[in-house]
Amino acid sequence: MNSSGNSTQLKPTARRIVEQAARLFADQGYDLISMRDIAKACDIKAPSLYHHFSDKQSLYQAVLQAVFAQQNAEIAEVFVTQMAAEEKLHQVILLSARKISSDHVFRQLLWRELLQNDPERMQFLAEEVMAQSCLQLQEILQQIQPNSLQTDSHFAITSVMGLLLFHFQLGAMRQYLPGAQALHQDVDYLAEQIFHMIKSGVVYAPPQRINDK
Amino acid sequence: MNSSGNSTQLKPTARRIVEQAARLFADQGYDLISMRDIAKACDIKAPSLYHHFSDKQSLYQAVLQAVFAQQNAEIAEVFVTQMAAEEKLHQVILLSARKISSDHVFRQLLWRELLQNDPERMQFLAEEVMAQSCLQLQEILQQIQPNSLQTDSHFAITSVMGLLLFHFQLGAMRQYLPGAQALHQDVDYLAEQIFHMIKSGVVYAPPQRINDK
DNA sequence: GTCTATACCGAGATAGAC
DNA sequence: GTCTATCTCGGTATAGAC
Fold first, then answer.
1. Looking at the UniProt feature table, which residue ranges are given for the DNA-binding region (chains A, B) (predicted)?
2. Residue A182 above 60 pLDDT?
3. Are B156 and B66 a contacting pair, CB within 8 Å?
């Protein structure tokens, strides 16, 4: 359990509220969680919450802000290392996989936001949460592929996101799908597979050129 | 707008209710849609719904059943053609992409179910909805890859699912991510890219052997 | 900053007439 | 098979004491 909103510049009680609310919202969703539920988790009564947040929506916004800012900070760390591009991609995927698989709160909230597909929130998510990682990922990918070909880096980036998110969201369904083995519970193994699929997709046989810039 | 529950063996009014409910549930989710909302969409009053379904949960179950059965039937058609394995994979991905991108109701309900991650429902989804397509996909993939290597077919299958689902769920966020172009709104183009990524992932350099059977 | 008490609303569901 | 009327519950949010 991580990234449950250690956002700074919030007073300690507000911080605790956001932390608890994040866990509950992630788990059961906005509608199923009542202000009473959140209050109970914080050992206070519901009306006290309104001293810290004007209403339920504001609290939810604060939760998203906190969780995604936290995630953003942690993911950024992945990119600082100095290695060959391919090994860098490998590490980025491995560490992102560990992060996303272990951080249930972040993953669920992200999945929920993608469900809504609200334009404003998508812009916020993309620009404030994803953009940094995506740009650095783009750079790595362009270093890996042969100079002569230009594969679709936007497609590659979103595929990395998609594979990471989907494989770790699959959870309880995985065991019922064909060919499932104990192996597939192993985060590092899945990360390895994702790395190879992205790498081969980028390196081999791009279907067509694209004016990437 | 498709697959909105043309389930047979339901009386016509019940069928209409399921159809409308599917659209509403997919769009706004179980909790946000009231029985009154559904009734209004059917031009009846809320209590009349209880003549056809014992409660809200039962109606939701009927919706899932109808939408997923429909989807299952449509996807199954994709596999009947006779072609070389690689071309077959190509077609399967292309047609699945068109289906999943156009069927907003199915995609949203599936995404919502994956959010809950309830073991029983995951088993239902996997076995009743996914299993057929997955097994046939598995067969195709095994025909494509060189006999000498055994790649992880479970990983490949779930990656196909993940890429298809994610890329078409991305919707409004896509335009805010690096490198987005008008191209990426084109279903067939994305399908092409997914096909190539899966193909190269399966054909080239499997990271390690696996006892697949 | 937290509480009790409460207003207000809309939800799911049922009874019983037609 | 559909309706009107109604019950009951739990939700968000506010007022005002401490």
1. 34-53
2. yes
3. no
